[in-house]
Amino acid sequence: MIRNEDNWLLRVRDLTKIYGEPNENTLALTGPQFNSNQCPETDSIVACAGISFDLFPGEVLGIVGESGSGKSTVVRLLYFDMEKSAGEAMLRPYQDGQVNILDESNQKKRFIRNHLMGMVYQNPRDGLNFRFTSGGNIAEKLIMAGNLHVAQIRSRASRLLEKTEVPVQRMDDRPASFSGGMQQRVQISKAIANNPPLLFLDEVTTGLDVSVQARVLDLIRELQQDLGIAMIVVSHDLSVIRMLTDRTIVMKNGRIVESGLTDQILQDPQHAYSQLLVSSLL
Amino acid sequence: MGYVAVKGGTDAIHRAQALVEFYRLKDATAPLDIRQIQSQLRLAVDKVMGEGGLYAPEYAAIAVKQAEGEVFEAAFIMRAFRTTLERRFYSETIDTRDMFVKRKISASFREIPGGQILGPTRDYTQRILDTSKATETTEDVQKFLQAFSASIEEQKLQPVKTFGKVIDLLKAEGLLKKADEQEDRTLMDITREAIKFPAPRSARLQMLARAETGALMALGYSSMRGFGSVHPTVGELRYGSVAVHIKDPAGRVRYAGKIDVTEAEMISSVSVAKKNSIPQYTIGYGLCFGQNDSKAICMGILDSTMRHPDQTLPANDQEFVLYHSEGIESMGFTNHLKLPHYVTFQSGLKNIREAILRNGAREEEQKKKKMSESPVFISNNG
Amino acid sequence: MVENRKFVNKYNFAFIDEATKKEIRRKLLKAIAIPGYQVPYSSPEMPIARGWGTGGLHVTLAIIGPDDVFKIIDQGSDASVNACNLREFVQHMTQVKTTYDTGEATIIQTRHRITEEELKEGQIFVYQVPQPEPLRGVERYENRTRQMHGEADYAKMWVSLYESFVQHGDIMLGAGYPVMVDKRYIMAPSPIPKWDVPNLNQSKALHLFGAGREKRLYAVPPHTIVEPLEFEDVKFHPENFKGIPCYKTGYKKAFLDELYFDDGTQHYVVNDSNFLDKLLEKAAPVQHHNKYLNPSGS
What we know:
The complex is a heterotrimer of chains A (282), B (382) and C (298).
Chain A: E1 10-19, E2 45-55, E3 60-64, H1 71-78, E4 86-91, H2 106-116, E5 117-120, H3 124-127, H4 134-144, H5 150-163, H6 180-192, E6 198-202, H7 210-227, E7 230-235, H8 238-244, E8 247-252, E9 255-261, H9 262-267, H10 272-279
Parallel strand pairs in A: 3-7, 3-8, 5-6, 6-7
Antiparallel strand pairs in A: 1-2, 1-4, 8-9
Chain B: H1 9-25, H2 34-40, H3 42-52, H4 57-66, H5 71-83, E1 100-105, H6 138-151, H7 166-172, H8 201-209, H9 213-224, E2 233-247, E3 253-270, E4 280-289, H10 293-305, H11 318-324, H12 327-335, H13 342-373
Antiparallel strand pairs in B: 1-2, 2-3, 3-4
Chain C: H1 5-9, H2 18-33, E1 39-40, H3 54-63, E2 69-74, H4 81-94, E3 97-98, E4 107-111, E5 124-128, H5 142-150, H6 155-168, E6 179-181, E7 185-187, E8 206-211, E9 216-220, E10 226-228, E11 256-260, E12 266-270, H7 273-280
Helix pairs in contact in C: 2-3
């Protein structure tokens, strides 16, 4: 993978999300140096501010931080689950990266989500429709991309389930009857159904048993190597970050405090908070 | 006997119509006088006007008689009648502070300006069946009216006046939450336009104003019992007459008549997630034709619940509350199940029969497969 | 008491006041201009209960003129009780000529069937619609279905068809099979049997749909593409009567009613009452033709 300035897949600049009614001092009075997301003057909450980074094709970027750091917010904004307060994001495969995808119409956003992105949530209920079968969930993605051939849809769905080690005979069962780990794997199948260039993973192993976690992480790593998808992995757990990512962003109180190669951050963290995180890594 | 073609449809319905009239008249009792219905069944007439959405007491009384006392049918007749009338004017805004008050109470304060006036209410009567009503004579009526008149002490009567509202007191003290700027304040006419969701407040209140009383009671009750989030206090409940004014073509405001209405202002507290914010009060508003405490109170409850952000509760869900409390529509659709549905049913039958055949064929195949794979048994019986 | 002379002695032509008729016609024009799109309208109350045909009546009464010839059927029959009630009402309010003859009618109002006899240019077919929203089964909120139509976001609908096939081996929809109109809007054709759905496609007549209780109007203009939703490999197919003949006429190509005689035996008869009458009179009515209708009658 060649990283040069122009080769980026996703470019994010100054992404910001504030709840409530900020004033002109809100940004200046919040952040890691104040150890707070909340503006003392207006009580508005700065979920994230000034987030900028580039992601390159096939690269895995980690975002790490404690709860309240804003890491999930960043990914939810990029996947259009929430509206931004400010900032832009450009995606190369969409209009050659010339357009801020966060400002596009609902219909265009749906096109981008269906064809160019995949998302796996911490809670399978957010990413799967429990009224449909697991095959039906994958079918939804394929149908949204224009595939209306049932046999082809089922064949692709069973291949995806195989790839994510879900027993194919459970394709016509509803996810409610699956274990947590299997539900996550169905979510992953759905997310990669249309071969998107970009995949978001938001705390996908948090809440699973340790052994199940390990299997899911292994699967993700294999898929990444197999398909060469670029990923953004959000986690509060540095060991997950260590296992999956090439580069990492460390967030605290809604801001980026450090970014760089994962290995470097783990060996030689610069910011006090990163040092704290790394030192608590078992 | 074979199949008889259904050719007698028109005859059948004419016979049914005649039967309906027969059931109404078969006991050959004296025909009810419309004035008796209007006067002695006043509250039925009020309910029919409220749910029919038309203030016309005489026509409502006729509808009650025509429908043999079935309030749903009578309200339906009123609504259909309304369609034949041309809309000539919209009235000027009515300020209920100008009401000629017949009843005025508040549960929020012990004493209110003008005092608590119970008015004509059954709230504090005992519901004991009064069989003397069966033998009432015109003499009894006259005697009662004379005694009642005599009991009024003329010199103690005060001049008729209007009364300020309890909520004005709250407003003056800064306790009332200011109207939300985000709220849609479009003035819609639901009889002229179909409602779409989310609906502006004017549409919600109009729909509640002519909704079926029982449906509103069920939903209001659910809200108070744990399926809801609002448990308000009666700030003020009023019943009385208000004047209706219209503007003539030359722009002059003219008096058109007066109507009786019941109005409820329900107070609930709401906290605002803002810095240094204090909890304030919001008002849930209800207004309906005639005297109908239950309806006005439940309107007020539901006006508040439908502005609540928690959408998982049925009473907070606009679409749920407004669609399903519309009495004429719900009566029509639930009863439409009586219409023939045999073609629709036939379609479904075919699907199910074919599915059963497919299932049967699949099981046969599986059985055959199993048998061809299983070992051969040699029976002792040859 | 003030007598409303108009009400007591004479109604406005077609019962509804002129301003409201005008509003309904304007909304119908909008519906025709956007085939398959649901247009909200005022839907005034009628002396007929909601759910019993007020929408169909609104359309008929808004467009009918003194020279029209009016036919009305319910589940295919002119003599069905509700059809008789509505026919009387329309006749009383307009004094128009009424007929049982499909060919003679200029306006045909229907509950849940299209006539077997072919519709011609200049005829208007008016449907009574209980649920105008084809997506209501997968999304209960009006506010979201409106958005789904606006964005042509129909994935949930397609997945429900897929799930039906996976569970039962076929798409288990019966009457009211959803269609795609002019390749843009998914539309509910009212609960007509699948048998009738292909006759909407490229029809010579104008099809108007009135949902009174839900307050929506929509339309399919003549010569419009109307396609039942189907997958490339799981296709739509109408009800199969397996070459069973009508016990009265021997006819095999029409939608049949299933009957049980007093002795418990099962028989089938042509459902469309006027079509049946014409067959019995040997009047050779011309049937709707579509690609699913096999000429050999099987």
